[in-house]
Amino acid sequence: MASSSSSNLQFRFHQIKPLEHLPKPAEAKAFLTRLANDSGIMHVMQKHGYSIGVLTELAPHEYPELLGLNTNKGQIISLRIRTNAYDGFRLYSDVRKVLVHELTHCVWGDHDDNFKKLNSQHNREVLEFERAQKAGTHSLSGITGDVYEPEASSGIDSGAIGAHSQVLGGGGRRLGGAEITSNALTREERRARILDATTKRLQLEEKDIEEMCGNAEAGGSSS
């Protein structure tokens, strides 16, 4: 296992390249840089040894059917970060889910059970790492407390992944279609229901990502 300092240098995105012919390339570079420096993403990359040559973007008008593409198992990862109308950028949390998906293509080309298992693991590792950070520790062992609850998503472009929002009021909370009443449930029951609802929501989002992944169109050959 490489030392922490050497892995930080090796297992990362080595170049950030926005598309200069599109509007506001500086803002696009800032968006891509935020993804590259995301602590949860960096944690997954260093844990699994992912070294990505270039992180760049996809132009919506050039690839309207794609959200992401991994070329040659990490040589280039391309993400759609802009809205279809080029008047802004897609929701960061949605683009990050696509990035996790494309990182998984560094190992598995097809969207088979092996891919889905590793992709789910990566998503779980990102969420657990963030939760550990919020708790004031980077250790992922022995985490206690409530299950991670993603923030509600809104304002997503029509070309983005479908949003599954929380609905407050009426004595309960709706996550991915499952209503959770806080009064009659024990803490463990509440944790289990939140986890189940979160898992179902992530599965729906992952289905959307798969359908708009360039590696599926290439039959895994470009991953």
Fold and architecture overview:
This protein is of the alpha/beta class and 223 residues long. The protein has a domain at 4-130: Zincin-like (2-Layer Sandwich), CATH 3.30.2010. It is built from seven helices and seven strands, in the order αβααβββααβββαα. Strands 1-2-4-3 form a four-stranded mixed β-sheet, covered by helices on one side. The protein has a three-stranded antiparallel β-sheet with strand order 5-6-7. A hairpin with a 4-residue loop joins β3 and β4. The longest helix is centred in the C-terminal third of the chain and has 25 residues, at 187-211. It is globular and about 55 Å long. The two termini are 25 Å apart.
Q: Topology of this structure?
A:
Layout: H1 4-10, E1 13-17, H2 25-36, H3 39-48, E2 52-57, E3 68-71, E4 76-79, H4 92-104, H5 113-134, E5 167-169, E6 172-175, E7 178-181, H6 187-211, H7 214-217
Helix pairs in contact: 3-5, 4-5
